[in-house]
Write a structure and sequence with these properties.
This protein has 446 residues and is an alpha+beta fold. 31% of the residues lie in helices and 20% in strands. The chain has helices at 58-66, 74-90, 101-108, 136-142, 153-158, 161-169, 188-195, 207-212, 217-241, 248-260, 322-341, 348-359, and strands at 3-6, 11-15, 43-46, 95-98, 120-123, 127-132, 147-151, 176-179, 200-203, 272-275, 295-304, 307-316, 366-367, 374-375, 405-407, 410-414, 418-422, 425-428, 433-435, 444-445. The termini are far apart. 46% of the residues are buried. Pfam families: Creatinase_N (PF01321), Peptidase_M24 (PF00557).
Length: 446
Amino acid sequence: MLTLLPDDGYSVAVRTPSAGPAKEGGATGDDQQRTDFPAYASNVTGLDSGPGRSWLTADAIAAVRDEHDRAFDDAEYEQRLTSVRDRMARGGMDAMLAFRPSSVEYLCGYHTAETAPQPLLVTGSATYLYVPDLELGRALASARVDNVRYCGYADALRGLEAFLEHAAGVLPAGARVGIEVGHASTPPHAVEYLRGSRVTVVRGEHLVETVRLRLSEAEVRCVAEAAEHTRAGVDAAVAAAREPEATDSSVAGAISAALFDGANSASAWGPVVATGVRGGIPHSSWSHRRLGPGTTFLEFSGAHHRYHAPVMRTLAHGPPGPDERVLAELAETAVAAVLDTARAGVSCADVANAAAAALGPLPDGVVFHHLFGYPVGLAHKPHWMDGAPFYITRDNPEPLEAGMVFHIPASFRYLGRCGVGLSQTFLVTETGARVLTHGAAQLTVL
């Protein structure tokens, strides 16, 4: 039975019986019978000097925990923490402070719609999650952490000093703390504050994200489930584009409805629908225009527990013209070459070189970014490119590893005239590439 133990007037300790055995494979949630998890965040403490939160009662906490939506079992999170702590030790770090929301979720399961910085401190033996008091419900529902520290909602929005002071205070003087200094989710003033405190800040760029590159079997199943939603989006786009008065925005609306239907999370980006000339202008999207002439470029992803499986598809409104045929052939060639070459042990440069050789010299006027793949998986807004910059490019000599998942963004354009994008999301295995998305990467003629 859940009990609430009074502490100092505004802190609580939460305990529950041990959980039964988890389901095989790691994933939990909508696609699996609910498991009773043990109560983590067993030390929930306020950092402000205000009155206690009278609404933080044992009954309320029990009700929140009953609605938990953690995506994986305990063993999965333990393995992730172990891997990150090993990397911390190799890098001479005593602790790590993660601000990137997707990496916080990766390590402890915590996720919320709130965008205020809510960092996770990982030491060699404990984890601390820092949240506004309004997010205590989300922390109790989703986070697998040893400690939760909170302050008032307005205080958390104004500054991080209470969180940072506590984080520095639980570490020994001179402790080396890794922070992803260069990422947009890390507030610069947080780095400055810690540098002026009793700890030593060291660059921890992509420490967690490098571990995230190799997906577990449970994570791959999440990507595969996301791919089912992506397939529904493609089918909806084709059906909507065939309507007599179809516009780019009506197609985008149909894609969005299909991606949300039956999903447990939203995509971090898109959908992109760029029709006619706008398809030839990179990263243009829908603006309530009639479809065509020529082609309509699509890019979007379904999501499952915020794991993504993006695709690019292109619709042709009638027989494609010569420009569209050239671009489609280039896109098909690039996708096929990557899938034929990629497997564990092959370097990213070798895959990119093979694809570049298959393409040959590009026709005059063709715009291409020469990025033959980027990693995907767990992602938070603003984009599903939310991990380490481990790209399939000609200047990356690192080998592919089994368990990595990539999107092949084979988009080719004549600037200001037209564009064609075709792609797949695939899993790297010991024997080759296994495509996780559905349907042929070919021009779809309506």
